[in-house]
Amino acid sequence: MSEHSGHSVAIVGTGSYLPSKVLTNDDLSKIIDTTDEWIQSRTGICERRIAADDEATSDMCAVAATRALEQAGVAAEEVGLIIVATVTPDMVFPSTACFVQHKIGASNAFCFDIEAACSGFLFSLDTARRFLDGGSVETALVIGGEKLSTVTDWEDRATCVLFGDGAGAAVLQRKTNNGRGILESVAGSDGGLAHLLNIPGGGSRNPTTKETIDQRLQYMKMAGNEVFKHAVRCMCDAATKVLEKANLTWDDVTWVVPHQANMRIINAIANRFDGNIDKFCINLNRYGNMSGASVPVALDESVRDGRIKPGDIVLFVAFGGGFTWGATVMEWGHGK
Ligand code: UT7
């Protein structure tokens, strides 16, 4: 709930976009040494979506954003702020949010990107909430979008089976009526562990040269086992902290919308609490890990298929490169 009594910041519309091309585990087993059985049993992933060559991150974000605005009944001109969470921007600069602004006609918005890897959507949600809470913005668009297929090393079987492309969006507004909306958020980072999950090439540390390309530094590198352990611990801690802050317990939570990296991570989180996996909104079997897009796509699907309803307590929790992690708890309500 807002620090300003009587106000709350609510999500009033959601949208998502998934590219049409499906890449199955069997397809992957034809290009690398892997099997559908290994991928499903180690990760829970069956297939993922791959964007078209001429489809950039902002193209996917713009469709997701338009769908969210339509659901909210909000015109693009009403949007005062656009934040895009991505590690696969269209270009190093300008921000992908600026491209989205132009595509959807949100001419009154100011725009920037947040780079917090798989926690990016939650960091963006919390950032937007503060602009709304402070009263300087009335309507914000928060989008998570990724074209991870462009930074995936298709010769590295340990990572290329994990990721996919897509985008999800949420429209946020400040409400005066009922106290519904975002209740509490927590976030954390540990830059000392940046080496465990990153894209080493293409930045100012290792600018792109023929050598960096020969060494394949433009692709994602991950120490999977190490990341796994930290992911479970940090996501459980973040969930516990945010519920404490909101004076809620795990039993109060109707739905958990987690980052979708690995079904074994999600099961470990469920087992740390009441073991009820049925209250997790899961889509990684169909889309793999879409980094900043995973949480908003899972949210949109769960709202549109009627699982998440007004009055439900929804817990978001994520973990990713940086390391970064965060959790947000909200009472769902679309009321104007
Ligand atoms: O989104 C941000 C956060 N990301 C995550 O949270 C990801 C966290 N990590 C993971 O999800 C898991 O660590 C992975 C799914 C990446 C890997 O699972 P794992 O159970 O940790 O496997 P492993 O890396 O320990 O590899 C086990 C074996 C190895 O063979 P040896 O050395 O035991 O002979 C690998 O070479 O599996 C082998 N392997 C594969 N085999 C078939 C690795 N990738 C594959 C593959 N197909 N695609």
How would you summarize this macromolecular structure in one to three sentences?
The protein is of the alpha/beta class and 336 residues long. It has helices at residues 25-29, 36-43, 57-72, 96-104, 120-134, 157-160, 210-214, 224-245, 263-272, 284-287, 294-304; strands spanning 8-17, 21-24, 47-50, 81-85, 110-114, 139-147, 165-175, 181-189, 197-198, 221-222, 255-258, 313-320, 324-331.
What would you note in describing this structure?
Strands 1-7-6-4-5 form a five-stranded mixed β-sheet, with helices on both faces. Strands 8-13-12-11 form a four-stranded mixed β-sheet, with helices on both faces. A two-stranded antiparallel ribbon has the order 2-3. It has 336 residues and is α/β, with parallel strands linked by helices. β4, α4 (96-104) and β5 form a beta-alpha-beta unit. Helices cover 32% and strands 24% of the residues. α3 crosses α4 and α8 packs parallel to α9 (263-272). Bound molecules: oxa(dethia)-CoA. Oxa(dethia)-CoA is lined by residues 34, 38-39, 42-43, 118, 157-158, 161, 224-225, 227-228, 231, 261-262, 265, 289, 319-320.
